[in-house]
Design a protein that fits this description.
The protein has 685 residues and is α+β, with helices and mostly antiparallel strands. The protein is built from 18 helices and 20 strands. A hairpin with a 5-residue loop joins strand 15 and strand 16.
Length: 685
């Protein structure tokens, strides 16, 4: 080919054609420099379970290109919302770690937490089916510690070199930039079917965990295996957990979709308003602790990020509590400019050879260099540590520190070799001295090869309702896939998890039912994985009280007082804003209407009606009632509301509280129903 002729062609189309390449063309995989590659799914490590090596030029090129693909929003976790707070440890963790912020229960450590969706852009909705980020920056007296967590304890991949691939596959397809913030398309499921290590994460993604009710009711997991190291140099393997005090609760899929249109800011609004009202979100920090001698004591590899440590085998020890008590002052300056990095650790917390963790240690700094305009992103106020920091780094884009003097190097005599190093006994960070002995190799230990046992463990642990939700999610997602062979491959893949699951999917998307012989033989379950076993509290739940002119003033007001005393938020809703006159000439102020709100933004509805309600009011109240019923939510009815409920002839009264004109009795029943969250055994018409 005459390259000069092609590039200098007078035809613009000819010029562009030189740079085009079709996906279907058979090509050899190379680096951007043209070096042919023998492997693209395994990083270069020191032995099969050793650390990733920085000399892996292919990994660095691939990840650097990926990290710099978007300007200015994050490539992933673009849509986020954040808050300030504080953390206190319950008891000293000195036997396990020398990290100072985990020593003294009287010390409050400032924190900044950013919650996020993963796939969507900044302008996408809050409620897609997606994993959620749960990143916490601890401003400790020894420096910043970033716990960069998710609301799902495992991940799609075992090696970070594949991270660009999974994100490219799940993002909007490049030829038409659709769909936004959704995995329900061909490229994602094609990738899943070709990468069976994704099985466990996909099970979580298809579960209720992927559509959380609130950031306040969402667990967080550090995903990776870290180390605690104490003053004597003794190490333990650990995993981090955030446990929400309010329990872990979710939306239903129809509700999540409707919220995306009616209130795309639903989760961030919930966090913002809760903090403003003083309903501060609380999370307890837990750690699973494992002695080094037990590293190989399980039927899975503890360094595999696609695996959990079942809580029944390695209990979660609750060691402290975080409270979010202040909203941000400026979203851009704080939420958007905050720079988390899994490599930001303090003395007493160290890394392991988890291959996904090893590659993340490179990626985060590389990303911030582009997104925040250079190497001084640590000087942005939200990122600055609360302790002093000194080094010989100078200049660069957006430098804010004004360094005095002529010395910017070590070793030096002009400044008495300042700043000087600090030995370990005086707080200097010293990496855990793990023995590394292995050949440079692109391979993975055989202990990482089982992709289906824990997927089956997760399935076994679900309640019947949760299992049905997983089946329905697969049907929806795969129903959007256009290529029949991809649908078939995915069903065949998940037959290796459970035949019942695969068969239920297959019968609704017109693919062949796979064999039952291939399913995992695991019978074990882990009750901790089911949200049915989470705390259920009425606190901070939001209900709509629907009233019209002529409502029963004495009864309704007493019921409102009782449910507010239980910590439930009440929203008075009518067909108009302003005062609504009761039958005793008292008033309640309506701040919500049928036009401005929908039942999907509330956890429950109480329909009290009113003697002057017209047909349109009745119609709207019945719509609220029907939607709440279909979403398995608690419903309270009295007076005209009871008449409308009876007219609807619902097939079930489960979770429906009917007034007996005894406000105290009704209130208690309704509060208990709100605490129950959902009534999954309700028969839906």
């Amino acid at each position: 080919m005459n390259e000069d002729k092609e590039i200098n062609s007078n035809s613009k189309n000819d010029q562009l054609e030189y740079y085009r390449s079709a996906d279907s063309e058979d090509k050899e995989l190379t680096t951007n420099q043209g070096v042919k590659l023998t492997e693209d799914e395994l990083s270069l490590t020191a032995g099969e379970r050793g650390p990733t090596l920085i000399e892996d030029f292919h990994f660095r090129e691939k990840m650097t290109h990926f990290d710099h693909e978007r300007i200015p929003e994050r490539v992933v976790h673009a849509r986020g919302f954040a808050a300030h707070g504080e953390f206190q440890v319950y008891e000293s963790m000195k036997p396990y770690t020398k990290a100072k912020f985990l020593q003294d229960p009287s010390i409050k450590t400032p924190v900044f937490v950013r919650f996020s969706t993963v796939v969507g852009s900044r302008g996408s909705m809050d409620t897609p089916r997606d994993a959620r980020g749960f990143a916490t920056k601890f401003y400790t007296e020894e420096g910043n510690f970033d716990l960069v967590a998710n609301n799902i304890p495992v991940f799609f991949i075992q090696d970070g070199i594949k991270f660009p691939d999974v994100v490219h596959a799940i993002k909007p397809e490049p030829h038409n930039e659709m769909p936004q913030a959704s995995a329900a398309h061909d490229t994602f499921w094609d990738w899943v079917s070709q990468n069976q290590e994704t099985a466990h994460m996909v099970m979580w993604l298809m579960s209720d965990r992927a559509i959380p009710r609130s950031f306040r009711m969402m667990e967080g997991f550090g995903v990776h295996t870290f180390r605690f190291v104490n003053d004597e140099g003794k190490a333990h393997f650990i995993k981090f957990h955030w446990k929400p005090v309010l329990g872990t609760h979710s939306l239903v899929w129809d509700e999540a979709q409707k919220l995306g249109g009616k209130d795309p800011d639903y989760n961030r609004r919930d966090l913002w308003e809760s903090i403003n009202m003083g309903n501060y979100p609380e999370y307890e920090l837990g750690v699973q602790i494992l002695e080094e001698k037990d590293e190989f004591a399980f039927d899975f590899d503890i360094l595999d990020a696609t695996k959990i440590w079942p809580e029944e085998d390695v209990p979660v020890r609750i060691i402290g509590k975080m409270t979010l008590n202040r909203n941000v002052d400026n979203v851009f300056a704080e939420t958007e400019q905050v720079a988390f990095h899994v490599g930001n650790v303090v003395s007493g917390i160290d890394f392991t050879n988890d291959p996904l963790l090893q590659t993340r240690l490179f990626s985060y700094t590389d990303t911030q260099l582009l997104r925040l305009g250079g190497p001084n992103f640590h000087e942005i106020p939200i990122n600055r540590p609360v302790c002093p920091f000194h080094n010989n780094q100078r200049d660069g884009f957006h430098r804010q520190t004004i360094n005095k003097g002529q010395v910017s190097y070590r070793n030096n005599s002009l400044a008495n070799n300042s700043p000087h190093t600090v030995d370990e006994e005086n707080g200097g960070f010293a990496h855990y001295q793990e023995k590394i002995d292995g050949r440079k190799i692109r391979a993975r230990s055989k202990s990482f090869e089982d992709h289906f046992s824990q997927s089956k463990l997760f399935w076994n642990s679900m309640s019947d309702a949760e299992k049905q939700h997983i089946i329905d999610a697969f049907r929806f997602e795969l129903g959007k896939v256009q290529h029949k062979p991809i649908q078939q491959k995915v069903v065949d893949m998940f037959a290796k998890v459970d035949y019942e699951l695969a068969n239920a999917i297959a019968e609704k998307i017109d693919v062949n039912v796979p064999s039952a012989d291939v399913q995992s033989k695991v019978t074990k379950s882990s009750p901790a994985l089911s949200q049915e076993n989470t705390p259920k509290l009425p606190n901070t739940r939001k209900i709509a009280v629907i009233i019209s002119e002529g409502f029963n003033g004495v009864e309704v007001k007493r019921i409102i007082e009782n449910i507010q005393a239980a910590g439930i938020q009440v929203a008075i809703l009518s067909d108009k804003l302003g005062p609504i006159l009761a039958d005793d000439n008292s008033q309640l102020a309506s701040m919500h209407t049928f036009v401005t709100d929908s039942s999907v933004v509330f956890d429950a509805v109480y329909i009290a009606g009113g003697t002057k309600a017209d047909k349109m009011f009745e119609k709207n109240a019945k719509m609220f009632m029907q939607e709440a019923f279909d979403h398995y939510k608690p419903i309270g009815v009295s007076n005209e509301g009871e008449q409308w409920f009876n007219q609807k002839q619902f097939p079930s009264k489960l979770g429906v509280i009917i007034s007996t004109h005894q406000p105290e009795h009704f209130s208690k029943q309704f509060i208990d129903a709100v605490a129950a969250h959902r009534f999954w055994n309700r028969t839906i018409s």
